[in-house]
Design a protein that fits this description.
There is one protein chain. The chain folds into 2 domains: 3-73, Winged helix-like DNA-binding domain superfamily/Winged helix DNA-binding domain (Arc Repressor Mutant, subunit A), CATH 1.10.10.10; 79-191, 3-Layer(aba) Sandwich (Rossmann fold). It is built from 9 helices and 9 strands. It has helices at residues 3-21, 29-36, 40-49, 62-73, 88-95, 97-101, 133-139, 151-164, 190-208, and strands spanning 26-27, 60-61, 79-84, 105-112, 121-122, 125-129, 144-147, 168-171, 184-187. A 7-stranded mixed β-sheet has the order 5-6-4-3-7-8-9. α1 (3-21) packs across α4 (62-73). The radius of gyration is 22 Å and the shape is globular.
Length: 221
């Protein structure tokens, strides 16, 4: 199954959770597509990859489809994680109910360089000295790291995590970090996403003005 299909499966689960909470029993591929702003053909193709679950003319039973997606999307074993950087964002992640709802993920430890934070407990997770990171990551079999440090420290942190043996990094610092090909890295630059959103909004507003130039940015002058 393609990775993009699995990732969209997580989106379908979010939608099905919302429908399940309002006691909706049946959903069509068109409804899921509209809910998630996806093409209905894409939704039907994705869901067919998870098995023969729908009924022509009726759609999909929300509970049955949700159960099947959970079977596929849920890790088959516990995955241990860590949060590096216990500032405001790091603390918010450690205390988040959303973190607790991620199936199969257990945050074992957190790391920081602030002596006032080292030894404290945030969201039931002990904060350790970042100087011990590689050693602890290896000992605790940490596979996933969430990095919430300042941009100038991000690459060094990732290097030490790799030294400890992590398999995946979610980087929230507003800087691109790299790792060996064997390590999955996702750079989550919130400010870049915001700038992209504002740019899209500006272009849409410009297009709606009377007499607006329809030339695209890539068009030759």
């Amino acid at each position: 199954m393609a990775l993009c299909t699995l990732r969209r499966g997580l989106l379908y689960l979010r939608a099905l959770d919302a429908m399940n909470k309002r006691d909706q029993e049946v959903v069509s591929s068109d409804e899921l597509a509209n809910f998630l702003c996806l093409g209905d053909t894409t939704v039907r193709r994705d869901l067919s990859a998870f098995g023969r679950l729908g009924t022509r003319g009726l759609g999909y039973r929300v509970g049955q489809l949700r159960t099947r997606l959970l079977e596929v999307a849920s890790p088959k074993e516990i995955i241990f994680g860590t949060v590096v950087g216990v500032g405001r964002l790091g603390q918010a992640l450690l205390r988040s109910d959303g973190m607790l709802r991620i199936e199969g993920l257990v945050i074992r430890v957190a790391f920081d360089i602030d002596v006032q934070k080292i030894g404290s407990v945030v969201g039931n997770v002990r904060v350790l000295d970042a100087s011990q990171m590689a050693e602890v990551v290896k000992r605790e079999r940490i596979a996933v790291a969430l990095v919430t440090v300042p941009p100038e420290a991000a690459q060094q942190v990732v290097d030490r995590l790799v030294e400890g043996g992590v398999s995946a990094v979610l980087n929230f610092a507003p800087v691109h970090v790299t790792a060996p090909e064997s390590v999955l890295v996702s750079n989550m630059d919130i400010f870049l996403e915001l700038e992209s959103l504002l740019l899209s909004l500006a272009w849409r507003s410009s297009d709606k003005r009377p007499g607006a130039d329809t030339e695209t940015p890539d068009s030759p002058a």
